[in-house]
Design brief:
Strand content: under 5%
Mean pLDDT: 88
Largest sheet: none
Number of strands: 0
Oligomer: single chain
Distance between the termini: 23 Å
Number of helices: 3
Low-confidence stretches: none
Structural class: mainly alpha
Length: about 120
């Protein structure tokens, strides 16, 4: 279970907002550096922490990762984004940034809706 004291719903909402505002676009200062979904946003428990002080096991995103992938180097990239089990890792291999971001947005909207509905009951 995550030890991140942030509200998971707010984390997901902020991530969606970040994505909708073009958050993973290449930096003007470092255009050669690709951005990493979740790792390069405030959704990451280690965002802006060069020492990566927190293990991924403390992050809310780990709750969405399939059990067999919780020990991966970047476990949040193994979150199943749809019923077929397609993950960020799978989509990164396709090298289609627009498709990747679209699919992550769809997943975020679905999870946000799911959590909101569960909390309203």
């Amino acid at each position: 279970m995550a030890r991140d004291n942030r509200d998971v719903l707010e984390v997901l909402r902020e991530e969606l907002k970040f994505l909708e505002q073009g958050g993973y676009g290449r930096s003007v200062r470092t255009p050669w550096l690709a951005k990493s979904i979740f790792q390069d946003s405030i959704a990451c428990i280690n965002y802006a922490d060069p020492n990566h002080s927190h293990p991924c096991s403390e992050c809310h995103l780990l709750d969405f990762v399939s059990p067999q992938h919780k020990d991966e180097e970047i476990p949040c990239h193994f979150i199943p984004l749809d019923d077929s089990g397609e993950t960020i890792e799978d989509l990164e291999l396709e090298d289609n940034e627009a498709k990747l971001e679209r699919r992550v947005k769809e997943w975020l909207r679905a999870k946000i809706r799911e959590i909101e509905e569960a909390r309203s009951q």
